[in-house]
Structures are given as structure tokens and as C-alpha cells.
Design brief:
This protein is an all-alpha fold and 74 residues long. The protein contains 3 helices and no strands.
Amino acid sequence: MSKRRVIAKAKVYGFGAWVDQVDAINQIMKDTGERNESALLRKLVDEALDARRKKSESAPLTEQDHAGVRLETI
């Protein structure tokens, strides 16, 4: 059984956010005292992009990389 996510109809940030995303954004704003939703969203996007960049930098070797290492070993 899959849980369907619902698009928030009452709140739009330039994209249709899921209801749980709106709730999370509201909670972060409450916790941090941030009043400007767009500033908070820009910070969240920056954090997500940094995390993805770091994840891709530390990604394991691909199969092609393994072949190169094996050739160097031989």
C-alpha cells in the first residue's frame, strides 16, 4: 500500500509543494525565527545542492574506474 502525497493547494512557492513540505517549511521557520519564506527556501536549496555535490564527490568508484585500476595493477 503506497501513501500518496498531496499537493498543497493553499500555498504556492513558485512550485506546487507537497503538504508535508509546507508543514516542514513552517516548522523550520518557527524553529529558526525566519520570517521570509523565499530566503529560507533559497537556503534549503543551497543546503541540498551542497549535500548532493559532496555526495557525488565521495561516490564510490564506478565499474569503469575499477577496470582502470586493474589495468594499472597488471
